[in-house]
Design brief:
Number of strands: 0
Number of helices: 21
CATH superfamily of the largest domain: Tetracycline Repressor, domain 2
Strand content: under 5%
CATH topology of the largest domain: Tetracycline Repressor, domain 2
CATH architecture of the largest domain: Orthogonal Bundle
Number of domains: 2
């Protein structure tokens, strides 16, 4: 048994549970050895986790090296950015276990513990050279963030639907995914700059601003949201909710069967309220482009007005990429999950949809994922309400015509 075999077993064993539990006993069972046998190579769990980090950087750098060097030689910024997108997408599509590991690091803000740029530089990959192509677009830092979020969303969706942890994807399936990601990042929903430039963003925003109110808020669910925002869904306890609500812990069981039921009621209720509010906003126009922005801005306004709900939804955005296969959705509930799919967006009906056949329910989750990602871009002392409307307009442009509309 080698160190590499132990590391690869850890990716598999811990990744299946999305790192909610990381014990050396699991790794030992995966390898069919005793736990003490692992200590000959790693003194503790943290040492193994550190080794997994080094393994990732070595493997990733080796995988992208040839295409990275090719991109540096082309001299074509438009081509370069897609070379990088395609090779990164291919790496994560082929390596579900490593993808999970990296996402956990990103979610838990643990990538700061080791300097990503420095680690790649030590392996001959200068990270800033990967980002230089973006500078040839009229693009802000938010753009790079949203491109990365789009890549993560569709890679995670691919692994979930394909159940790739137990059913490795074919080369053909990976190729189709990469082509689809390139199209959605390159062209978005295939609108033109002229079509989007005609929108009166400020006027549309004014129709929604101030419409959110807390009249129908459930004070108990508000206490749950506060606990989740503070400690996350896995750390939030019934005791915390009881303290916030002024009820005894025993009284909570009159409302919730258990903690899982409590969290379920919170997220189902809030998701329904978000969708209902967005539909209300979208009804204020019959123009598809306007309906799309009204829906997006309505969600933004709802989450701005309820920061605890935003933070709670951000936890779900993160844990939503757990790669655990989704439960089958009853046909009766499919319509409940549709929002933007019901807009007359020609992209969804004219044969250009690269995700055709993928269940038809990717558009709303993707947009919601990007909205939360945009609102959660925070610096020290930066509050949710400080995210300017210009960022939301930028997000809308990226969704509607991709990075192609930002080319200088």
């Amino acid at each position: 048994m080698t160190k590499t075999e132990i590391i690869e077993a850890a990716f598999k064993a811990w990744g299946r549970e999305f790192y909610l539990n990381t014990s050396l006993s699991q790794v030992a069972r995966e390898l069919g050895v005793s736990k003490p046998a692992l200590y000959r190579h790693f003194c503790n769990k943290q040492a193994l986790l550190d080794a997994m980090t080094g393994y990732f950087f070595n493997d990733f750098a080796d995988f992208i090296r040839a295409d990275y060097e090719k991109a540096l030689k082309t001299g074509d910024s438009s081509q370069n950015i897609f070379i990088i997108i395609r090779i990164v997408a291919e790496y994560y599509a082929q390596n579900a276990n490593i993808f999970i590991f990296l996402m956990i690091k990103l979610q838990n803000r643990k990538l700061d513990e080791f300097n990503v740029a420095k680690e790649l530089r030590n392996r001959g990959i200068e990270l800033k050279n990967l980002y230089e192509p973006v500078e040839n677009y009229n693009f802000q830092s938010l753009g790079a963030r949203l491109l990365n979020a789009t890549l993560i969303f569709f890679i995670a969706d691919f692994h979930k639907k394909g159940k790739t942890l137990t059913n490795p994807p074919s080369e053909a399936a990976i190729a189709r995914l990469i082509d689809a990601i390139e199209k959605i990042i390159g062209s978005g929903l295939c609108y033109t700059d002229e079509e989007i430039a005609a929108l009166d963003f400020e006027g549309l925003e004014n129709r929604i601003t101030g419409m959110v109110n807390g009249a129908g808020d459930d004070p108990l669910l508000k206490a749950v949201a506060g606990a989740v925002a503070e400690a996350g869904p896995w750390g939030a306890s019934m005791e915390q909710v009881a303290h916030r609500s002024g009820l005894s812990k025993s009284s909570l069981y009159c409302h919730f069967k258990n903690k899982q039921d409590m969290l379920h009621q919170l997220f189902v209720t809030e998701f329904q309220r978000i969708m209902d509010f967005a539909r209300l906003g979208m009804r204020q126009s019959a123009v598809p482009q306007e309906q799309l922005y009204l829906g997006i801005f309505s969600i933004v306004e709802y989450l701005r007005s309820k920061p605890d709900i935003l933070v709670a939804m951000d936890w779900i955005r993160n844990r939503g990429i757990s790669l655990k296969p989704p439960e089958e959705i009853p046909e009766s509930k499919v319509e409940f999950l549709r929002l933007f799919e019901n807009i007359d967006i020609r992209f969804l009906h004219d044969g250009k949809n690269p995700f055709e056949g993928g269940g038809g329910l990717w558009l709303t989750p993707w947009i919601l994922f990007l909205i939360i990602n945009t609102l959660m871009q925070k610096k020290a002392g930066h509050k949710v309400k400080n995210v300017p409307n210009s960022d939301i307009r930028f997000l809308y442009r990226l969704i509607t015509f991709g990075i192609g509309g930002f080319k200088l």
